[in-house]
């Protein structure tokens, strides 16, 4: 009966948390962003404290340094990104015309005729697909950028999140101690052990993957710019940032860079092949060098589970869901492994074979 009450309590607590996130998802972005910043910067604050700073000075130093670095990045990178986005929008009609000519030349080629391709049928299907895709993309971009709430959220993220991060970072150790004092005393050591495992997984993945993503972004952007592919800086940097989701960034970057290279250099195949080779090398670099060095092999977040969590939480809670998806995936993974270990050690799994043999008379 006691175990049933405990299970019911934790189920209710999880349901209340999910309901809270769902109800207030429209205003949670700056607070979740500030909490994420505080969590990521807490080890640095502890480092400053070990070298003689008090917590207030360490927190102020970290926030100021973070804002200076962010401002420098915005000054250096933002103009380039804005310029390339503007050029992409301005050159979009020309690229659509080139795409039409490339498709026409491929459909009218001798090898397409040899395998029985009907150019008119293929063009009709592609036209319908492109039309639907353009309508969907236009609607999505319009709804995102014209929505007042989206603008307010972005403004709040830039203004409110650093303030939230400052207060949380300053009070981080005290808050952890307060939450620890609320834990049920009968299970406090188990909960602490699970919390340490969750923290290890989250910290190992988030901090490590952030370094991997930044390194890949610089590598892809520099490579595409050297190859002379249009919008290479925008594509490469975006592919690196999206690499926070395993395989997604490299896949999107591969498709975008090879597609732009085809339109830019057609019918020459050298640059499209070079762009493809760049992303293949990037994947090898990520898999055999960056991830083992920055993340290691014991994080415990499978890429499929991570992608599912990101899509599921993003669907339910929007951009806030993307921020909480990785901690939630890590927490669920730790709890599932703990529950599985308890199940494997229980009579439910072991059955009669695991029970002691009764003494013979």
From TrEMBL:
Q: Which family does it belong to?
A: Belongs to the autoinducer-2 exporter (AI-2E) (TC 2.A.86) family.
Annotated compartments: Membrane
Q: What is this protein called?
A: Predicted PurR-regulated permease PerM
Specify whether Cytoplasm is a keyword of the entry.
no
Protein's organism: Bauldia litoralis
Residues that span the membrane, as ranges: 7-24, 60-82, 149-170, 217-238, 244-266, 273-295, 307-340
Membrane topology annotation: Multi-pass membrane protein
What keywords are annotated for this sequence in UniProt? Membrane, Transmembrane, Transmembrane helix
GO CC annotations?
A: membrane
What processes in GO biological process is this protein linked to?
transmembrane transport
Keyword tRNA processing tagged = no
């Amino acid at each position: 009966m006691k175990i049933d009450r405990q299970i019911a309590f934790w189920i209710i607590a999880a349901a209340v948390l999910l309901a809270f996130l769902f109800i207030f998802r429209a205003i949670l972005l700056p607070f979740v962003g500030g909490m994420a910043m505080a969590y990521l910067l807490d080890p640095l604050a502890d480092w400053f404290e070990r070298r003689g700073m008090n917590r207030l000075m360490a927190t102020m130093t970290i926030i100021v340094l973070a804002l200076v670095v962010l401002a420098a990045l915005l000054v250096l990178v933002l103009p380039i990104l804005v310029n390339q986005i503007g050029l992409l929008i301005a050159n979009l009609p020309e690229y659509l015309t080139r795409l039409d000519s490339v498709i026409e030349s491929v459909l009218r080629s001798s090898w397409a005729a040899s395998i029985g391709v009907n150019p008119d049928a293929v063009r009709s299907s592609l036209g319908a697909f492109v039309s639907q895709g353009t309508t969907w993309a236009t609607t999505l971009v319009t709804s995102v950028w014209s929505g007042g709430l989206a603008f307010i959220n972005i403004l709040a993220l830039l203004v409110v999140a650093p303030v939230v991060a400052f207060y949380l970072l300053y009070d981080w150790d005290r808050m952890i101690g307060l939450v620890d004092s609320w834990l049920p005393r009968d299970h406090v050591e188990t909960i602490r052990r699970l919390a340490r495992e969750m923290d290890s997984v989250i910290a190992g993945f988030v901090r490590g993957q952030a370094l991997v993503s930044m390194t890949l972004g610089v590598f892809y952007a520099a490579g595409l710019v050297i190859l002379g592919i249009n919008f290479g800086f925008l594509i490469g940097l975006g592919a690196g940032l999206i690499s926070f989701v395993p395989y997604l960034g490299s896949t999107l970057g591969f498709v975008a860079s090879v597609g732009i290279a085809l339109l830019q250099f057609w019918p020459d195949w050298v640059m499209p092949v070079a762009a493809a080779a760049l992303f293949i090398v990037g994947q090898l670099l990520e898999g055999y060098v960056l991830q083992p060095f920055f993340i290691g092999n014991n994080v415990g977040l499978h890429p499929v589970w991570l992608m599912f969590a990101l899509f599921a939480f993003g669907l339910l809670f929007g951009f806030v869901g993307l921020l909480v998806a990785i901690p939630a995936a890590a927490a669920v993974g730790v709890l599932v492994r703990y529950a599985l270990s308890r199940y494997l050690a229980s009579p439910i799994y072991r059955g009669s074979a695991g029970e002691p043999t009764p003494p013979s008379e």
